[in-house]
Amino acid sequence: MTIPQETEFCIDLHCHSTASDGALPPEEVVNRAADRGVTHLALTDHDTVAGMAAAETSAAARGIALIAGTELSCVWHSKTIHIVGLDFDPADSGFKSALERQNANRWARARAIADKLDRIGVEDLLDKATRCSNGDVPGRPHFARVLVDEGVVTNLAQAFKRHLGQGKPGDVKAFWPELEEVVQWIVDAGGIAVLAHPKKYRLTATKLRSLVADFQRAGGKAMEVSTSGQSSGDLGFLAELCRREKLLASQGSDFHFPGAPWCELGRITKMPDGIEPVWHHFKQPVGLPVQSGA
User: Fold this and answer.
1) Could you give the C-alpha distances from 19 to 45, 69, 87, 99, 102, in angstroms and in order?
2) CB atoms inside a 10 Å sphere around CB 232
3) Are 18 and 131 within one domain?
4) What angle do CA 240, 290, 244 make, to 5 degrees?
5) In the chain, how long is the greatest CA-to-CA distance?
6) Where are the beta strands (DSSP E) in the chain?
7) Could you tell me if residue 290 is inside a domain?
């Protein structure tokens, strides 16, 4: 059930399109969000803002407020962590250069995956995976789809189990920048850095608190409290952590593709009371009274 934090709004600040690893083009993501009552949306494709122009056109047509967004990969203590950037200036030259470096890292990883899977004998594997990703950087799901299409495996699960899952040849780790650097990119571009889906990293409570502390020291201001795949216990734990550390609270469906009701656009459990929503601190705040001029 969709229960927005602000009763008059439905706010989804984490979703993906074909500009990264989502199944729908940006304009279709926006239309789907509108059909589900979303009023404020951030398209947060991985390490890119390539889908924003198309999303803006659809958002204007459907009456949705579109917030600048992206989800950046970084490393903390050798573990890959995702940081969502919100309400930044996508035209900032330093930020654009950083995204170009991230894109180069993704292509280097894609080439490494293709090289590792060369023994399977699929001709032009990287090219086929790139076509599967509509010309964008292919990830493991795209390589898995090619393996299914080529008859190497019977389904996606088997592709990961045999070739792409943890410890398998195609499990190539990317060389991402450190957390501090990525947070600074967002801050320098005038945005708000948000620690994405904290419980998905499978850290102990002690290590998660350590991550939060380092994130704040780097300039991070917010944390996702309500997102897909969480238990009520996770929600309560993250809300309390947010209160204790005086972080702003964010929320998002982490939508990637239709047919997964647990991560559908706008389907977000209401955050507990007593935490400050990140959208109150956007350049154009959402849900706060408009201040009249002097």
Assistant:
1) 6, 12, 19, 13, 14
2) 9
3) no
4) 10
5) 71
6) 11-12, 40-42, 65-67, 69-76, 79-86, 192-195, 222-227, 248-252
7) no
Q: Does a structural domain hold residue 292? A: no
Q: How far is 66 from 149, CA to CA, in rounded Å?
A: 36
Q: Which of 174, 164, 159, 162 is nearest to 47 (CA)?
A: 174
Domain membership of residue 137 as a residue range:
118-164
CA distance 170 to 247: 37
Facing residues of 72 across strands? Answer: 83
Give the separation between CA 201 and CA 227, rounded to whole angstroms.
Answer: 13
Q: 197 lies in a domain?
A: yes
Which helix (H) or strand (E) segment holds residue 115: the answer is: helix 93-116
Q: Are residues 181 and 143 in the same domain?
A: no
DSSP track, 140-203: HHHHHHHHHHTTSSSSHHHHIIIIISTTSTT-PPP-PPBHHHHHHHHHHTT-EEEE--GGGG--
Q: Alpha-carbon torsion 260, 263, 266, 268, what sign?
A: positive
Predicted confidence at residue 289, as pLDDT, reads: 64
Q: How far apart are CA 242 and CA 214, in angstroms?
A: 14
Count of domains forming the chain: 2
pLDDT tens digit string along 106-159?
A: 899 999 999 999 999 999 999 999 998 878 788 888 999 999 999 999 999 999
The answer to whether residues 262 and 23 touch, using CB atoms and an 8 Å cutoff, is no
pTM: 0.87
Q: What percent of the chain is modeled with pLDDT above 70?
A: 96
The letter for the amino acid at 126 is L
Q: Is residue 169 part of a domain?
A: no
